[in-house]
Amino acid sequence: MNSFVTDDKWQKQMRDEYLVPWYKKHATDGRFVLLDKGRFSETVQRRLAADTIVQSEDGNAVAIEEKIVRWKGRTYTAICAETNSCTLPGLESPGWTQYGQFDYLMYCLQTEPGDLYAMIIRGPEFLAWFNQRVESFPVFQMSTQNKTTGRLVPIDQLSESKLITWRGLITKSQ
């Protein structure tokens, strides 16, 4: 069984080592806020599915939902789109594809050397596109305590849909 605490700690470490320097470089004047501490942060994460707020060139606050995944020894062909965060009887809760209101989904895949291959996907367009096709994607269920479920969305379909606005390798040296 996967450990949420262990995985969450790893994801925050990867975010701090890779995404924070990337945000400093790409956000307007390096302005961004990580939403991982405090009551306000928890509210935004639980209600909107946003992990980081970045200031854009036009001065807007842009909400980014981050997913950082690892799957050692396997080729990534799909992203995991969470439809149900918890499926335990009496504790059911929707996943981020159901309640998310983020501007962009930053989906990062750990490479064999340990860097991150990132895709930035337009959020509202992705959610509309995904929910129109949800039944066409294969189902997955995590072995985590909450028995999270979702759909596997092929990366090639995301590419064909033109929902990916940027993709590239993010290394520690950036």
Biggest sheet details: 6 strands, mixed
- Number of DSSP strand runs: 10
Shape: globular
Overall helicity = 25-40%
Describe the protein's architecture and organization.
The protein is α+β, with helices and mostly antiparallel strands and 174 residues long. 32% of the residues lie in helices and 33% in strands. The protein is built from five helices and ten strands; from the N terminus they run αβαββββαββαββαβ. It has helices spanning 4-26, 39-48, 96-99, 123-133, 155-161; strands spanning 32-34, 52-55, 61-69, 78-86, 93-94, 104-110, 116-122, 139-141, 149-154, 164-170. The termini are far apart. The mean pLDDT is 93.
Give a quick rundown of the structure:
The protein is α+β, with helices and mostly antiparallel strands and 174 residues long.
SSE layout:
Elements: H1 4-26, E1 32-34, H2 39-48, E2 52-55, E3 61-69, E4 78-86, E5 93-94, H3 96-99, E6 104-110, E7 116-122, H4 123-133, E8 139-141, E9 149-154, H5 155-161, E10 164-170
Parallel strand pairs: 3-6
Antiparallel strand pairs: 1-2, 2-3, 4-5, 4-9, 6-7, 7-10, 8-9
Keywords, separated by commas or semicolons:
33% strand; six-stranded mixed sheet; 5 helices; 10 strands; alpha+beta; single chain; 174 residues; four-stranded antiparallel sheet
